[in-house]
Amino acid sequence: MPNIESAIKRVRTSEKANVLNNTQKSAMRTAIKKYETALAEGADNSEALLQDAIKAIDSVASKGLIHANKAARDKSRLAKKNEQIIFNREEAIGNPMASFL
C-alpha cells in the first residue's frame, strides 16, 4: 500500500475502474455466449442476439477495454457463424438459390 496520499487515491480509483471494466467485458462475453447458444439450438431470436453481441463488442472496444482489431475479429467470426447457419438451413430446405451464396 502506498504512503503518498495521491497514490492511495489512485489505488482506490483504479480499483473502481477495474470493477467497471471487468463488468463491461463480462457482459460482452455473456452476450456472445447467449448468441452462440441460441445459434446452436436454432432459436428464432438469434438475429436479435447477434445485434446485441455486436453492440456489446462495439461498446467495449470504444472504451478501449479490448483492441479494435479484436473487436473486428470477434464480430467477423460471429457474422461468419450466422451466415453459415443460414446457408445450412436454406440448403436443408432445398432452396435453389442457396448454392449461389
Detailed description of the structure:
This protein is 79% helix and 0% strand. It has three helices and no strands. It has helices at 5-41, 46-62, 68-93. With 101 residues, it is mostly helical. Helix 1 packs antiparallel against helix 2 (46-62) and helix 2 (46-62) runs antiparallel to helix 3 (68-93). The longest helix has 37 residues, at 5-41.
Percent range for β-strand residues: under 5%
SSE-based structural type: mainly alpha
H and E string: HHH
Distance between termini? 60 Å
**Helix proportion range:** over 70%
The helix tally amounts to: 3
Sum up the structure in keywords.
101 residues, 3 helices, single chain
Any chance you could write out the topology, listing elements then pairs?
Elements (H helix, E strand, L loop, with lengths): L4 H37 L4 H17 L5 H26 L8
Helix pairs in contact: 1-2, 2-3
